[in-house]
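Quick note —
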Amino acid sequence: MDERRVPEALIGVYVATILGPALVLWGRETGQIALPGAVAAALVLGLATALAAHRVDDLPATLEAWRVVAVTVLPPLAYLPFMIVATGPGSADALVAAVGLFAVVPGIAVPVSGALVRNRRLRAAATDIAVVIVGGEDGDGESGAERNWPVIAGAAVIGVVMIATGAFVAVTGSGDFASFTSGIGGLSTVLLLLGDDDETELAVTDNGLRIDRSMTRWDALTGYRVTDEAIELVRPHWYTPTRSFERAEISDEDALVSGLAEFLPRLDEHGRVEMAARRGEIAG
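Predicted structure written out below.
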């Protein structure tokens, strides 16, 4: 199966899952559409949306935009107040709204799948320029959060499922939610432990910086700094923290710095002195 089909399919599932309950609830209120017709209409709209997504030239890149994330994550949450305020506990409408609330799961999966596809394509097309190892058996794994981001994303999805299920149980009054949350919490812990590793491969490539299997494009970085303790990668926005790697844990610091210098400006005092010297040479 073409990897591009995955986000397309998820978009279709998301649209069908969020619109189906809305059509069912509308039909129950107005009598304008029966349950089979509402389900059929939702499936047709989901399929049509998936086909429309197929016509987008670079769908994975489009799905990374924050507007797409807002559109696929926030709308299903509108079912939550409806479940609590507009319906009674255990009612049929509450059950239908719970299905719509669960659309947040494929909603989150849409931008995540787009990011994974785009990351894989960047990695496959990249040419390594400098490859170093950060950390090891005795390393403290400072960059582990960057390394384990797919596992952490999976744990986040599990958390959303827990919230949606909790809302469902609270409204319907059914099920043993304590056992459910205990089991899911244990599963998320296992996922994080399975992703743990003390060694990170850091590669400077022509397409960006690769941290193990995760790619960061050069245009997503402002520059780099070399401090007494670490090499820091600076990103342009205040809400994106600086990535830091302990110098003592880098297998070949000179190769890493040399590779970074090909694509990024050096932002510490040494870099400012070099930049001033170059400007003086040009002026001369």
